[in-house]
Amino acid sequence: MQIDFIFSILILIFSVIVHEVSHGFAAYLQGDNTAKFAGRLTLNPLSHLEWFGSFLLPVMSYFLGGFIIGWAKPVPFNPYNLRNQRWGESIVAFAGPAANICLALIFGLLIRFGVLIQFGEAFVQIAVMIVFINLILATFNLIPIPPLDGSKILFSVLPNSLLEVRSFLERNSIFILIFFIFFLWQFILPLVSLEFSLITGFAL
After folding, report:
1. Per-residue pLDDT tens for 95-121?
2. Residue 91 · residue 26 · CB < 8 Å
3. By the 8 A CB rule, do 53 and 72 touch?
4. Which residues does 176 contact at the CB level (< 8 Å), separation at least 6?
5. First-residue to last-residue Cα distance in the chain
């Protein structure tokens, strides 16, 4: 149990770092150097981690709910510097979950095609944790509640006639997010389990 917990925390830390660096790199490719100048286009954990989201919350979620969730410090970017003013912010937002999906696909397909089994069961179990944690991160961050990435994607396609919806979500984001985590999280885990099965060919 302790070994699984340690590996889960390490995988989470690596995954959230990849998530945040992907945001910054997507902005950089569109002409915004904010993340680069802030020293955030690096995989060095010291540049990204924070005590609550990267350590305390994962420990609490593991022992209270049996799953791992957390985050790193958001990578800064200036939307006004992006070359694509129409879709640039949503591209930056989607880059984080997309990176987690890519990690889940890579290790999930290694599981599906039995590539890792020749190295031992331990490698398979680590790959399972990588897929599961990255699917949780991607799915959770795509929920359209501020400040999650899904809200920025939603706002980019929201017509002007529904700007009141954006204002409502932004004003009440913390309460909506807390409500979701406590009362609707149960619907996320079955979705993640389905995603896991589709990628790996195995049930959790």
Report:
1. 999 999 999 999 999 999 989 888 888
2. yes
3. yes
4. 145, 169
5. 17
CA dihedral 6, 141, 46, 51 (to 10 degrees): -70
20 in catalytic set: yes
> Which residue type sits at 17?
I
* Cα gap 103→120, rounded to integer Å: 20
Q: Which of 20, 50, 89, 170 is catalytic?
A: 20
Measured CA to CA in angstroms, residue 195 lies from 96, 99, 159, 192, 198 at distances of 18, 16, 30, 5, 5
CA 57 to CA 142: how far, in whole Å?
19
Could you give the number of structural domains in the chain?
A: 1
Q: Which residue segment(s) compose the domain that 95 sits in?
A: 2-200
pTM of the model: 0.89
